[in-house]
From TrEMBL:
Catalysed conversion reaction: tRNA(His) + L-histidine + ATP = L-histidyl-tRNA(His) + AMP + diphosphate + H(+)
Domain of life: Eukaryota
InterPro entries, per the entry: aa-tRNA-synth_II, aa-tRNA-synth_II/BPL/LPL, Anticodon-bd, Anticodon-bd_dom_sf, His-tRNA-ligase, HisRS-like_core, HisRS/HisZ, HisRS_anticodon
Domain WHEP-TRS: 4-60
Enzyme class: ligase
Predominant subcellular localization, coarse grouping: cytoplasm
Subcellular localization, as worded in the UniProt entry: Cytoplasm
One Gene Ontology molecular-function label: RNA binding
Annotated binding of L-histidine, by residue: D116, L117, T118, R145, Q161, D165, R314, Y318, Y319
Name of this protein: Histidine--tRNA ligase, mitochondrial
Function according to Swiss-Prot or TrEMBL: Catalyzes the aminoacylation of histidyl-tRNA in both the cytoplasm and the mitochondrion.
Domain Aminoacyl-transfer RNA synthetases class-II family profile as annotated: residue spans: 58-451
């Protein structure tokens, strides 16, 4: 039996070994084909998620909830290509560049699948900057990464992201504060449970690295190492800094004193009182922004969700200012059993650490990226500052799906099921559904001339349809129908009420409003 810790990669390897051993032993073709079928099914899980009706209902709820919040804040939607020239994506993602899918078209031109929705949006602004000097946009679309899948944690090679961005020149921290507010609104509306927004500033972090003695050329690589502190203990991150990044041990120890700091306004005050820190230009600029941001977040009633966390680095190279990510209780490392801690001995182990050592991970993240548009634009339309957030749909989905295993999820929105008693009354059921549809009521009936009564009630229970309209020949002859509340198990009202056929729509509307 598979252990809970057994990864998808291990299952694929084990099944592949079985297929090879069956072929080597000259097993029956049917046995080999069955083993190959299992192998292909496992490999399919590496690409993306499949959608049962239950899963799709959850995912659709996520999309509609997030879109509603985005629109409430004045965003318009735009679309960007799935394919980009490889050179467009090169140099934008730091160490994560190794996760980009590279392709080659018929003419030999090198292309890539989009890694995120941010860089394509920046290129869109560079091409259309004169038309959109200021814009709030949102986009919900798939992105692609050569990652090691962990489906229960929402990590796949093909997955959806929901992005909201504000582009344009505005007063400091106003747009940034609204984007953070939007992230909080979305996560609250999705009802994922308690969450925290970890927040930091790229200039503050860069300034701290400078004070600690990190050479300018090593600031980004060291930042990428610090970004792993939510997945690895400090000792392992420090080892990477020394062995792989070539950082001086004294500098690493000084960094360690800072990245353990987290808090709220009190941490801001503590850093402002540090004369060595505020003498650094980058640190001072970062702290000035944080003071304003905290002030605006308090007005927006979300300051209580914030954790000012100096270990937050965000590994992508294009961030220039405020950075943030949302985490839940499911986001962190699982507790080690019996005091045993998982160790990684190789860089390959570290690259694949998410699979066995972390939970869902951050469920939303983003920040300010003021220079990205300028990388693609000419002088007439370049330099549009931007700030945004990306919500990881699959990670939110994995949380909601785990909860849905314990509760029933309504896979469709049908409100009324039209049921016949005795004779099939197909045409009558069709006519009643037509009347309900015309009235804007979501209704269904069974596509059979003489369906069994119990089969029709089973559909109501399975699909959690709240009301049934029950028709029989004698009732129709009297111009009546019965309306039954399928959620009630009692007699009387639970058995349904008789209403005139002409009042059916009015009665159902009244009940559906309650």
């Amino acid at each position: 039996m598979d252990t809970p810790q057994e990864t998808l990669k291990e299952k694929i390897k084990k099944q592949g070994d079985l297929v090879r051993s069956l072929k080597a032993a000259g097993a029956e073709k049917a046995e080999i084909d069955a083993a190959v079928g299992v192998l292909l099914g496992l490999k399919k899980q590496q690409t993306g998620s499949s959608g049962t009706s239950k899963k799709m209902a959850i995912r659709e709820k996520i999309f509609s909830t997030i879109t509603s919040v985005f629109k409430k804040h004045g965003a318009v939607t735009i679309d960007t290509p799935v394919f980009e020239l490889k050179e467009i994506l090169a140099g934008k993602y730091g160490e994560d560049s190794k996760l980009i899918y590279d392709l080659e078209d018929q003419g030999g031109e090198k292309c890539s699948l989009r890694y995120d929705l941010t860089v394509p949006f920046a290129r869109f602004l560079a091409m259309n900057g004169t038309q959109y000097p200021n814009i709030k946009r949102y986009q919900i679309a798939k992105v692609y990464r050569r990652d090691q899948p962990a489906m229960t944690k929402g990590r796949m090679r093909e997955f959806y992201q929901c992005d909201f961005d504000v582009a344009g020149v505005y007063d400091p921290m106003v747009a940034d504060a609204e984007v953070v507010r939007i992230m909080c609104e979305c996560l609250t509306a999705l009802d994922i449970g308690n969450f925290t927004i970890k927040i930091n500033h790229r200039k503050l972090l860069d300034g701290i690295f400078e004070i600690c003695g990190v050479p300018e050329a090593k600031i980004r690589p060291i930042s990428s190492a610090v970004d792993k502190l939510d997945k690895l203990p400090w000792e392992e991150v420090k080892k990477e800094m020394l062995d792989e990044k070539g950082l001086d041990p004294v500098a690493a120890d000084r960094i360690g004193e800072y990245v353990i700091l987290k808090g709220g306004k009190e941490l801001l005050t503590q850093l402002l009182d540090n004369k060595e820190l505020v003498s650094n230009k980058n640190v001072k600029a970062g702290l000035d922004d944080m003071i304003l941001l905290f002030q605006y977040l308090e007005i927006f009633n979300v300051l209580d969700k914030m954790s000012f966390d100096l270990s937050l680095a965000r590994g992508l190279d294009y961030y220039t200012g405020i950075i943030y990510e949302a985490v839940t209780e499911q986001s962190g490392q699982p507790k080690a059993e019996d005091g045993i801690q998982i160790k990684r001995k190789t860089k390959k182990d570290s690259d694949e650490l998410d699979e066995t050592t972390v939970g869902v991970g951050s469920i939303a993240a983003g920040g300010r990226y003021d220079n990205l548009v300028g990388m693609f634009a000419n002088t007439s339309s370049g330099g549009i500052p931007c700030v945004g957030v990306s919500i990881g749909v699959e990670r939110v989905f994995s949380i909601l799906l785990q909860r849905a295993q314990l509760t029933s999820v309504k896979a469709n929105e049908v409100e009324v099921y039209v049921i016949s008693v005795g004779d099939g009354l197909l045409e009558e059921r069709m006519g009643i559904c037509t009347e309900l549809w015309d009235a804007g009521i979501k209704a269904e009936f069974m596509y059979k001339r003489k369906p069994k009564l119990q089969a029709q009630f089973t559909v109501c229970d399975r699909d959690q349809i709240p009301y049934a309209v029950i028709v029989g020949k004698s009732e129709l002859d009297r111009g009546e129908i019965k309306i039954k509340d399928m959620r009630s198990k009692e007699q009387g009202e639970g058995g349904g009420i008789i209403v005139p056929r002409s009042q059916m729509v009015e009665e159902l509307r009244k009940r559906l409003r309650n």
